[in-house]
Amino acid sequence: MGKKASAIARKALALAWLIGSMGFAHRVRAGSFSVDPVHISLPEGQRATSLTIRNSGSAPVSIRAEALSWSQVDGDDHYGPTDNVIVSPPIFTVAAGATQLVRVGLKARNRDPAYRLILQEIPTQKAIPGEVQVVLRLNLPIYLAPRGGKPNVSWSAWLSADGTITVAGRNGGSAYEQVTQLAAEQEGKILPISKQMGVILPGSWRRWTSRTPLALRPGEPIALDIKTPNGETQARIPLELR
Predict the structure, then answer these.
(1) pTM of the model
(2) Distance separating alpha carbons of residues 48 and 78, to the nearest angstrom
(3) Mean per-residue pLDDT of the chain
(4) Cα(224)–Cα(227) distance, rounded to whole angstroms?
């Protein structure tokens, strides 16, 4: 499944969950647009790119586009305002079955390794009794890729008194690392930690946490299995107690 198809599938699953949680008391009306590409990269020497918004629905859809700064503090993602990324047009309407080209550009290449692009559907003003309108919101990465850049991730893990295991990846390289799945093994006990995709930005660290039903032993090493889009690697690291 391609990246574009994966994004559409994730939206469909989220919508299906929402509909199921509502029961049958309301009808649901949702916008339908897709983005290509969903992975935005600006290599060194390039300061602008474009993406295509496609409206596959039967009615016009209005969208607001906004760029945010992206950093990682204490292992978590943090977004904030930025004036270094220009998005044009910032607000637009795509007719049913039509497409819209959106340009994304940098004022300057600074030390920030990445940004986020938020595409938020603007709800229509016409409220229909007995109907719930679901608006789509896409959060896409914008990576500034240095020439020859590579990630260099070191791993650590610790166990808390409440049984929570935390795995942290610290990226000392010059490019981001995308992690799609994490699992740990100790003395034949296999613990899935996360199947949620996460990115470790260069010069930053990110953490994953999981409540473990297994009696893991702090002070003893664990075998960490790390899956990325480029393959699978293993790291043998000590399990600390914090």
Answers:
(1) 0.81
(2) 24
(3) 86
(4) 10
